[in-house]
Amino acid sequence: MKKFLLLLLFTATLACSEKTDEKQSDAYIPELVITDSLVIDRLTELGMIDVKEDHSEYLFFDWKKDELLRISEHGEVLASANRSEDGRDSFKARYFTTADYYGEDEILITTHAGIFIYDLDFILKEEKPLDFSLVTHRIGGSNAAEVYKNYLYTFSVDNDSGEKVYNSEEFSTSYPFMTLRDINSLDIIKSQYIPEQSLMAITPGQYNSLDPIVRFIGDEIFALFPNSPELYVYDLPSFEFKSFQALNPGDQFKKIQPVNRDINFDGFFKSLASSQYTNYAFSNGYLLTQYEGAAPQDEVDALPKNVVGGSDFEALVKKYKEKQFYQIFKGEEKLWEGTWDVNLWSVRDVLFSNAKPGEDPEAIEKDVQTIYFYELK
């Protein structure tokens, strides 16, 4: 990896960072620092899907070419393959739902068709049928399945129960979606209902984004539901509930209401007018959370309701939903909340972006793809 001689620092006190009106903590507020970069000799933009535990390599997906790629820590393409097409090594679907490093030398991919285990050259070694379905609206990097050591976490419903659960008026509380499994046998170790403290339990119903963002750290499992501003902690391997931390976002966080099933596209319009947590990461003893803005309800109400994705709809998405709000915590104390002029993502414990602060990654066409790694310091 390329090492920066001069680390780029920026905090809430810089001009490029907009503070909210909320009073900030008097404690030290860490700086967001670019610590490293990964330069990949690839014209098309890649999406990071997973990272090895020792950070020796990264798993990417090329959405234009439908290719999976293993990239070394030096940016070298170690292997690439299109496994969405027909063939002996295909995962039998156009897109996968999740893809994770599994052990030292395997990659585990989930689709609606099953679980597919590949070697590091993307040669299929084993295929397992599923008696459950992942509950998610996302593909190619969903939060609905995660691999950790000998465990497979899934946010799922048993196939035999699916129709009854999906037709339930109290969908979000009708089934123990959160499940910890033995990764070899897929037998259930423990299942959990959505926490009773969450918005989705207090106001049951259908939500477009229900599956939580899950992180495994040591002997704990952390879960942040997109629509509910709390971070939940579970024990590993018992998967027993331990505690939760209220994130207390500012007034710009708009809570969502369940979908009205009698109204076409209601879930999309409700999501447009509400906020959603999109990521979080632990960095050097701090917790960094991230949520998107919400379009004003009157502007959403003014949209035509017979179409989703039109120019007016997309204009509101760009104006409001692409704006990210960040929170920094030390323990349970919120040190800061506000905006930065960079969009961050995280995979496992890696915090990254495809741009530097203030840089538009789509402004110019580039011959290489550069991923910037960040930490709080």
From TrEMBL:
It comes from the Bacteria. PROSITE patterns: PROKAR_LIPOPROTEIN (PS51257). The lineage of its organism: Bacteria, Pseudomonadati, Bacteroidota, Cytophagia, Cytophagales. This is 6-bladed beta-propeller protein.
